[in-house]
Structure formats: structure tokens, C-alpha cells
């Protein structure tokens, strides 16, 4: 296998994890960022994100001299055969993807380019961006050097990013010239993954189409869950029955408070914007977005149905990250739900094993951040589960029950069986599963 020299621009989840994994399989990788403090931390082998397994791989890559971190982006670009653009493409006011960082990165490349390079877009970008990147680089370099643009979208998930990258199910390579596509295919050889070569436009759309399809599955099952609540069916049983059909499959049919995170919310909006600009209609996508936004608020309705007014009520919120195994709170349901609780006059105590600090930056100090599940639920009038962290789900709920003022548990992630929680004496309410009323009996040991 040929070892390539790769410069990665942007050390967020994608840049850091993919850069580290490409170094792990034998390439020479320099990860660059404009954020000097982040690079300083990385040089000391301090990982700025919570991502299981990443610290070990970064340390190994650095020890073997295959992985470096720098703010000297110009030098990294000049020394590289292949450049990954992995900067953020956040949602703008209008819902479209903001390409400012991508444009900055392209112009930086164009300003210092010193020979043929393959420039790979790993960021999620609207269809047509590959052509724009070529234009920006061409303008900045006065077309002095030849280069190729390749769209190679990233499909890793936060929380299992290292595993996803090392075990990627496919890589999509969108390029104009087969020679450029061949280089990127060779780069991926050590991963032994399925390679799909497409046009740049198709590759760009594959990323949005995939994310929005997964978001659609979640909104679909959440709508079924809401129907289950009305009709007395159990959404877990329904999802199980649906998933047994191999054309449907079991994955992404976990009902709850809906999707959050740095990708699905912004990518559904970005595709909606792209659709409108193209003069097309995509009403399913509209419904996916609306359903998800409503879904978050259902736990508040459920809480009000049990407690009446929330004013002065002590509510324990367990889980702030948008999913377990990450400290990312970008567009986490907790950030919508907690302000609504506060608005209604509730007193909110919250716990997350790793994301409390990140949540505090957004929510401020109106929320009391607690060090443990036990401290959070003590004397509360109700407890809301927003993220299914193992530390939360596996807590000793028999013990926790006795410390709550009222053992009302609203499970936004369907973590437990209603029967088991009722046996423990909880008033247990979940999403789309039959409500089992509190039993007369006191605590029983769970089976
Ligand atoms: N987070 C994920 O799980 C994930 C998965 C697949 C795809 N994506 C896509 O990948 C892209 C990056 O996402 P992320 O979550 O890693 O982003 P992020 O926002 O966490 O990190 C982006 C990094 O790029 C740096 N940066 C910005 N402009 C720069 C420049 N001109 N030069 C050097 N560095 C610069 C920032 O300082 C930051 O550290 C987005 O388009 C996202 O949609 C993300
Ligand atoms: O059945 C499910 C599955 C997920 N979720 C929620 O959906 C969100 C996203 O989850 P997940 O897809 O596991 O995490 P991400 O890290 O956001 O990864 C998605 O977004 C990335 C960024 O584009 C893509 O690379 C990944 O392929 C895609 O799965 C989270 O809030 C989950 O709680 C559900 O509610 N029900």
C-alpha cells in the first residue's frame, strides 16, 4: 500500500477522528486548525472531545510519528499529496448550510498551493459546493497549479466514531477524473471497505439523502409511538414486528424524544433549503422536521398531565448530551426541553456524566448541575430521562425511588420495561408504550 501525506483542515469530530484513523492505517497525517488552543491541547495528547477509544489511537499515532497537529496550515497544505477539508458547515438563519469555513479553507489552499493536490471534501456540503471549491481555489491560486476536487462524505456517528471509521461500511468517492478517484480509493484500501465511485454531485447528495432518510425513520416511528399512546399499542413491539421484515430492518426505529445532534437537524434543514432552491417539493422532509420539533415537547405535556402546573416543582433531568457516549450538546433535545421547564416555573436540577459543562455554556446557571444521579433525583417531584447513558439506565432505581418526593419517571428514551418500573413503585410514563399505573405494593427487587 502506498503511504500518502494527508493534511486535514479542521479538527472537529470528523477531522480529528478520520485524520487519526488514516494515520492508524499507515498514512502520514497532519491535522490543522485555526483554533490554536485546541491544537496546543492536542499536541499534549489532550482530546478536546469525549469519544471512546480516540485518546489511545491519537497517542499511538503521535508516538509512531504518523500523526501531527499544527496551526501552520500553509506548510501542511504544501507538504500534502491529499488535503481533507473537514471544517464545520453549520446551519445559517435561513436553514441553508453556511459555507464560510469551507470557503476560507479553499482560499487558504489556493493561496499556498505549490503543486498537484487532491482536495477532498469531507464536510457535509450542498450539491454544487465541489464546483465552488474548485472555483475558489482557482481564483486564489490564479490557476497556476492543477488539482482535483473529490467529494468523500463522512458517515461516522459520534460516540462510536472511531469504530465507525475503522469499520466503515462504504466510502463514496465523487470525482470528475478517474485518476483522482483512484488515489482516494487507494487511500481507503487498508479499511477494506466497499467503494462507490460517483459524480461529485451524486456524492454530495448521497450524504444528505442518507441522513435525511435516517431522520425520516426516527420521525416515522415517533409518529407511530404517539399513535400507540392513543390506541394502547406498544411501540417497541410494533418496531420489533416491523423490523423483522428485512426490507425495513430494526435499526433507527427507537422511539423517543426525537433526533438531535450536530447533523440530523441541520442536514434536514439544509436539504429542505436545497430542495426549495431547486424548485422542487419534498413534503416528506417537511413532515420529518415538524414531527421532530413537536416530539421534543411531548415529555412536557406528559409531565403537565401528571403534575398539573410545573410552577415551583422540582424536576430532575437526567442526560444532557444529544445521545450517549458524547459530550456534544449541539441541538440536543435537553436544550429545548429545559428552557420550557424553566419558563413554566420549574426548578431544574440536571445530570450528565460528561456533557454538563457544555450544556452550562448554553443553558447558563438557572439549572443546578449535579454530580450524580442520586443527588439529582433527591426530593424531586418528577424525573425526566433525556439521554440513555448506561450510567443513568443502570443506576440502582430501587434505591433512587425512595429518595424522590414523588416517584414520577418520564422516560423520553424508553429505557426500561414499564412492568419493571411499576414493580419498583414508580409512576412510569414512556413514549408510545402502555402506561402501567402505580401498584399498591411497595418496592420489589427487580428481576
Ligand atoms: N460531527 C459528526 O459526527 C459528523 C459526521 C459526519 C459529517 N460531519 C460533517 O463534517 C463537518 C465537520 O463537522 P464537525 O462536527 O467535525 O465540526 P466542528 O464544528 O466540530 O469542527 C470544525 C473545526 O474546523 C475548524 N476550522 C474552521 N475553519 C477553519 C479553517 N479555515 N482552517 C482550519 N480549521 C478551521 C474549527 O476551528 C473547528 O475546530 C460538517 O460539515 C459536518 O456536517 C460531521
Ligand atoms: O432509532 C433511533 C436512532 C437515533 N435516534 C436519535 O438520533 C440522533 C442521531 O443519532 P446517531 O445517528 O446515532 O448520531 P450522529 O452522531 O448524529 O450520526 C448521524 O449523523 C452523522 C453526521 O452527519 C452521520 O455521519 C451518521 O451516519 C448519522 O448516523 C440522536 O439524537 C439519537 O438519540 C433516535 O431517536 N432513534
UniProtKB/TrEMBL annotation:
Active site as annotated: 263 (nucleophile)
Family annotation (Gene3D superfamilies): Cytochrome c1, transmembrane anchor, C-terminal (1.20.5.100), NAD(P)-binding Rossmann-like Domain (3.40.50.720)
Residues annotated as binding NAD(+): 33, 38, 89, 124, 158, 266, 330
Domain of life: Bacteria
Pathway(s) served: Nucleotide-sugar biosynthesis; UDP-alpha-D-glucuronate biosynthesis; UDP-alpha-D-glucuronate from UDP-alpha-D-glucose: step 1/1
UniProt cross-references to Pfam families, sorted A to Z: UDPG_MGDP_dh, UDPG_MGDP_dh_C, UDPG_MGDP_dh_N
Keyword Oxidoreductase set for record: yes
Binding residues for substrate: 155-158, 207, 252-256, 260, 323
Primary enzyme class: oxidoreductase
EC number: 1.1.1.22
Location of the UDP-glucose/GDP-mannose dehydrogenase C-terminal domain: 316-418
Record GO terms (molecular function): NAD binding; UDP-glucose 6-dehydrogenase activity
Reactions listed under catalytic activity: UDP-alpha-D-glucose + 2 NAD(+) + H2O = UDP-alpha-D-glucuronate + 2 NADH + 3 H(+)
Signal peptide positions (record): none
GO biological processes: polysaccharide biosynthetic process; UDP-glucuronate biosynthetic process
SUPFAM superfamilies: 6-phosphogluconate dehydrogenase C-terminal domain-like, NAD(P)-binding Rossmann-fold domains, UDP-glucose/GDP-mannose dehydrogenase C-terminal domain
Alphabetical UniProt keywords: NAD, Oxidoreductase
Similarity comment: Belongs to the UDP-glucose/GDP-mannose dehydrogenase family.
Name this polypeptide is given: UDP-glucose 6-dehydrogenase
Source organism of the structure: Paenibacillus agilis
Amino acid at each position: 500500500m502506498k503511504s500518502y501525506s494527508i493534511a486535514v483542515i479542521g479538527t472537529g469530530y470528523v477531522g480529528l477522528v478520520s485524520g487519526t484513523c488514516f494515520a492508524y492505517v499507515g498514512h502520514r497525517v497532519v491535522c490543522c486548525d485555526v483554533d490554536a488552543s485546541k491544537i496546543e491541547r492536542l499536541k499534549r495528547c489532550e482530546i478536546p472531545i469525549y469519544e471512546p477509544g480516540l485518546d489511545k489511537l491519537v497517542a499511538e499515532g503521535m508516538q509512531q510519528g504518523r500523526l501531527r497537529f499544527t496551526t501552520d496550515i500553509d506548510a501542511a497544505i504544501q507538504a500534502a499529496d491529499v488535503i481533507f477539508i473537514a471544517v464545520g458547515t453549520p446551519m445559517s438563519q435561513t436553514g441553508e448550510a453556511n459555507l464560510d469555513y469551507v470557503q476560507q479553507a479553499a482560499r487558504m489552499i489556493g493561496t499556498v498551493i505549490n503543486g498537484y493536490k487532491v482536495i477532498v471534501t469531507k464536510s457535509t456540503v450542498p450539491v454544487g459546493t465541489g464546483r465552488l471549491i474548485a472555483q475558489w481555489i482557482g481564483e486564489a491560486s490564479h490557476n497556476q497549479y492543477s488539482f482535483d476536487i473529490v467529494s468523500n462524505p463522512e458517515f461516522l456517528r459520534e460516540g462510536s466514531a472511531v469504530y465507525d471509521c475503522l469499520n466503515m461500511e462504504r466510502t463514496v468517492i465523487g470525482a470528475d477524473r478517474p485518476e483522482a478517484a483512484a488515489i482516494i480509493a487507494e487511500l481507503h484500501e487498508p479499511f477494506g471497505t466497499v467503494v462507490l465511485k460517483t459524480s461529485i454531485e451524486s456524492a454530495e447528495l448521497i450524504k444528505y439523502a442518507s441522513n435525511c432518510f435516517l431522520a425520516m425513520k426516527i420521525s416515522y416511528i415517533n409518529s407511530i409511538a404517539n399513535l400507540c399512546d392513543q390506541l394502547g399499542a406498544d411501540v417497541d413491539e410494533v418496531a420489533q414486528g416491523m423490523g423483522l421484515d428485512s426490507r425495513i430492518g430494526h435499526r433507527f426505529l427507537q422511539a423517543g424524544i426525537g433526533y438531535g445532534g450536530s447533523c440530523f437537524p441541520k442536514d434536514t434543514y439544509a436539504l429542505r433549503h436545497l430542495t426549495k432552491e431547486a424548485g422542487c417539493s419534498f413534503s416528506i422532509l417537511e413532515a420529518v422536521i415538524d414531527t421532530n420539533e413537536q416530539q421534543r415537547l411531548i415529555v412536557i405535556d406528559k409531565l403537565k398531565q401528571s403534575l398539573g402546573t410545573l410552577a415551583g416543582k422540582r424536576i430532575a433531568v437526567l442526560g444532557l448530551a444529544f445521545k450517549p457516549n458524547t459530550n456534544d450538546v449541539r441541538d440536543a433535545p435537553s436544550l429545548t426541553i429545559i428552557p420550557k421547564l424553566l419558563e413554566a416555573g420549574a426548578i431544574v436540577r440536571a445530570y450528565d456524566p460528561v456533557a454538563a459543562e457544555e450544556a452550562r455554556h448554553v443553558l447558563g446557571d438557572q439549572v443546578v448541575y449535579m454530580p450524580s444521579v442520586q443527588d439529582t433525583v433527591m426530593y424531586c417531584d418528577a424525573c425526566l430521562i433525556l439521554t440513555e447513558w448506561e450510567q443513568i439506565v443502570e443506576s440502582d432505581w430501587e434505591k433512587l425511588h425512595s429518595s424522590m418526593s414523588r416517584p414520577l419517571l418520564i422516560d423520553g428514551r424508553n429505557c426500561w420495561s414499564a412492568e419493571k418500573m411499576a414493580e419498583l413503585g414508580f409512576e412510569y410514563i414512556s413514549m408510545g408504550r402502555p402506561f402501567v399505573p402505580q401498584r399498591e405494593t411497595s418496592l420489589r427487587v427487580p428481576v
